[in-house]
Specification:
It is a single chain. The protein has 4 helices and no strands. By secondary structure, it is an all-alpha fold. The longest helix has 26 residues, at about 25-50. The protein is globular.
Length: about 110
């Protein structure tokens, strides 16, 4: 659950984007697509941690990966606040549903 101060930051970021770029359907689409870019940066950082690219070797740290994951979270929350009126309420309700999901195959009913 995000704190009220964290939601204030998300609202402020969304308002800044709205003031700068507007909130047309195209702008909203771009905010959603921005997630793809951010997830790619997580992948790039993780590849850099593992040294998977032999031409480059180890280029990133776990802290770099953590920073990129935070960027994904912020980008997702800004996109969420751009597509729904009550992002905090929606987030809390969805998180509660996820928390209530069975966590073992035996507990799943069909």
């Amino acid at each position: 659950m995000l704190s009220p101060d964290q939601w204030t930051t998300i609202r402020d970021l969304t308002a800044w984007l709205d003031a700068t770029n507007g909130r047309s359907p195209q702008e909203t689409t771009l905010r959603v697509l921005k997630l793809t870019e951010e997830v790619g940066e997580v992948a790039q950082a993780w590849i850099g941690v593992t040294g998977q690219n032999p031409r480059k070797g180890v280029t990133h740290t776990r802290e770099d990966v953590a920073d990129e994951l935070c960027d994904v979270i912020v980008t997702a929350l800004v996109a969420l606040s751009s597509v729904i009126d009550d992002p905090a309420g929606h987030w809390n309700a969805k998180l509660a549903k996820i928390a209530d999901r069975p966590r073992t195959p035996e507990a799943v009913t069909r």
